[in-house]
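Troubleshooting log. The previous structure file for this entry was overwritten by mistake, so regenerating from the original sequence record. Sequence copied from the archived sheet and checked twice against the printout by T.R.
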Amino acid sequence: MTIAPFRARALVAVPHGFLGRRGGVSTGVCAGLNVGLGADDDPQAVRTNRRLAAEAVMPGAALVTVHQVHSADAVHAVAAWPDDARPHADALVADRPGLVLGILTADCAPVLFADAQAGVIGAAHAGWKGALTGVVDATVAAMERLGADRSRIAAAVGPCIARKSYEVDESFLRRFAAAAPENERFFSLGRAGHHQFDLEGFVVARLAAAGLSRIEALGQDTYSQPDSFYSYRRATHREEPTYGRQISLIALPA
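Regenerated output below.
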């Protein structure tokens, strides 16, 4: 099956793509374009999928990823790290061609950034914890250290779990409200004692609060589209033994 990345109009100036599970060589419960080294999948299939994904966005570029830990840490990438030496972080930035930055997700929000004029790009893994503790702000700050200007940075939020699919409990809402009372607007009432959380909307708001004015949200729900995306929560609800991860990629033109 052909790999067909989702594109964002906001990032048209740079090579990029939000990939789902379509395409790839994995089989079984991770069938498709699983790029997660931590999934219970054939390691060779995962490596092949990673190569295919990178080639679909920027042929010949070196794929750079980090060991994601739901932090607010951003690192500067100058070359691809070996798999066993990837830094623990949840965002990465670069200012040189030849690299394609990759963020893995399975319900969390992938965010891609670019200041095309400065030649600086970024990619962030924004799960609820990283989004709340500042991974978006850390990425923008790291890009500015490389010469970007937040007034020029464009950002796009890729496929992630949607409000309708993201049920949380009362303590989850209280954690966000304690950080800022206005965060309650990202929650709507669900069944008794529960709420529905708008992760995508929250990330968009954090981008705007960081001073970005060109922001796009793709509006794709990972949970409700099993043929198109991997989803940790869906796999958990189905009691599946493992789950795949999709990748979002951005590069600078050569």
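The chain has a mean pLDDT of 97. Archived copy saved in two places this time.
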